[in-house]
Each structure stands twice: as C-alpha cells, then as structure tokens.
Amino acid sequence: MNVTLDQARALDALARYRTLAKAAGALGKQHSALVYALRNLETQTGLTLLDRSGYRTRLTAAGERVLEECRRLLGVARDLELVCRTIQTGWEPSLRVVFDGIFPVRAMLAQLKALTAAKAPTRVDVFAEFLSGVEKAFFAREADLMISVLPPRDGHLTGTPLPELGAYLVAHRTHPLTRKRKATLDDLREHTLLTVRGSDPRLLLSTAPLEPGATIQLNDFHSKREAILDGMGFGWLPDYLASADLKKGTLRRIPFELGDRHVFAPQVYSLRGRTLGRAAAAVVAGLTS
Which residues are within 8 A (CB) of 3 and not within 5 positions of it... i.e. 6 or more apart? Predict the structure, then answer.
C-alpha cells in the first residue's frame, strides 16, 4: 500500500468541507484532480471509502476509520516539516551529554528546562557516570558534551571551565573520627572509607593513600550521603549534599591533618574542532554563566 499525502489531504478536505467542490477549492485543486485522488485512495486501500449514492458524497464507516489514520499521517508530516524548519535554524536533531555524578544534577536540569522553554526540537539524552567512566562513556555513546572533574586522557577533547565544586571530608557527628583533634592517616585507616565506584589519583584527594583499601563502594553520592548519615563510615561529600547536614550538626568535618576540604575543577568538554549545535552551545553557555 502506498497512500500519499495528497490522497490523505483529499479525504481530510472532503470530511471538513462536506462537498467535493468546496474541498477542491480549499486545496487549490481542480474538481477532477480531487476525484482522481480519492479514487486512487480507494484503490490503494481496497475499500469503499465514499458513499456516492446520495445528493452529496459521504464517507462510509470504512472511510471514517481510514480518515483517522490519514489525519494521523498528516500530523506526522506537519511535525516532520516543523522539525526540519527548526533544525535549519541551527538546532541539532539530538544531543548526548555525559556528566560526572558528583556534579549537581540541578544544574543540568536547569539547562534542560531552558531548552524546553526555548521549544528546542533537539532530543536530549543525559547519562551519569563517575570519574574515568565519564570519558569512556563519552566515546562509547558518541556523546556531544562531557562534564568531568578529571582532565581527559584523550587529546582530542577541549574544555571550558565550570564553577568550582567544593567537598568536605565528613562523618556522622557520633563517629570517632569527628572527636579527634587532628586525625592522621593511621587514624583514618582504622575506619571504613566510603567511596563512589572507586577513586582516581588525578583527583589529588588528601585521602588518596586510603582509596585502594576502601571496602565499600556505592553507586552514587546520594547513597553515599545516606550511608554516612547511618554511621557506616566516612567520606567526601560535595557541598550541595553536605552543607545542610553540617549546619544542623548531623554531619561533622573530620579534622584530617592532610586536609578535610577539597575543591574540584569541573569542565565541560567537546571534541576539538567540532562545531556545537544550538542546543549544545546553549547548555555550555548556561553552565558557565
């Protein structure tokens, strides 16, 4: 079956305007051309779509049902036309973003909200990974943007700095480490360090010597926060997850001799030499502003 848009428009016009003459006029066609399109539609479907026995040509029950699908087809055609016109203005068809899970998801959601408000036709896919897994996922998913707290290993990536992201080394207020005047590496080794899918020496964390011995690795930082609040161990939490609990006193900073404060320097990366589409450029601009 090869129903054309012209045939679908002919049936739709007849249903709307009730007479062949008015339908032909609305479509800017000759009466004979409209009749020809409708007969071809009946031939294509193998159905009697029109009742021609009365004064006016009417749709049969089969015609009404086929009309529903013709209108669906016309709707898809209109949507396709709109997408094509919009893409011609610079919006890319799709945008894939991979970001490190320590990065505040609210910042990313704000950019997606802005794209929605701008009525961007771009389909956006967002994926969370951690540490070295971010760069791996960027290439595996053929993504357009990568937000990472680690410098990339691949030299074909170019980055734009994002606002710094601070983190504290914390534990529940009842944890023994919070009562130390100055905790040493040996003190920390006596307790459970909680991490999110391991670590990476490029982070330059003060707890780096402890990372290989971490016994509990969690899936994300929200789970890590809950584990720390439950007294399971200690670990690094970004400011946006720790600040409220620190203010309430539920969490406390560990006075670690090598430092209980770390500042990450996230950047948003893309492939060097690739021109960003309108949606990708808007996301970068929004994150860096």
Answer: 41, 44, 45, 70, 73
74-129 pLDDT, tens per residue?
Answer: 999 988 887 777 777 778 989 999 999 999 999 999 999 999 999 888 999 999 99
Quote the CA–CA distance of 161 and 168 in Å, as a whole number: 21
For residue 61, give the DSSP letter.
Answer: H
> What does the DSSP assignment read for 92-103?
-SEEEEEEETTS
**Burial (Cβ within 10 Å: 0-12, 13-18, ≥19) of residue 66:** buried
CA dihedral (6, 7, 9, 13) positive or negative: positive
Q: Do domains 94-161+266-288 and 165-264 have the same CATH topology?
A: yes
| Rounded-to-integer distance, Cα 84 and Cα 38, Å | 29
Which helix (H) or strand (E) covers residue 227, if one does? helix 221-229
CA angle, 134 then 145 then 140, to 5°: 50
Q: Are 256 and 250 in contact (CB under 8 A)?
A: no
Q: Would you say the C-alpha torsion 170, 173, 175, 176 has a positive or negative sign?
A: positive
pTM for the structure as a whole? 0.72
What would be the CATH architecture of the domain defined by 165-264?
Answer: 3-Layer(aba) Sandwich (3.40)
The architecture in CATH of the region 94-161+266-288 reads: 3-Layer(aba) Sandwich (3.40)
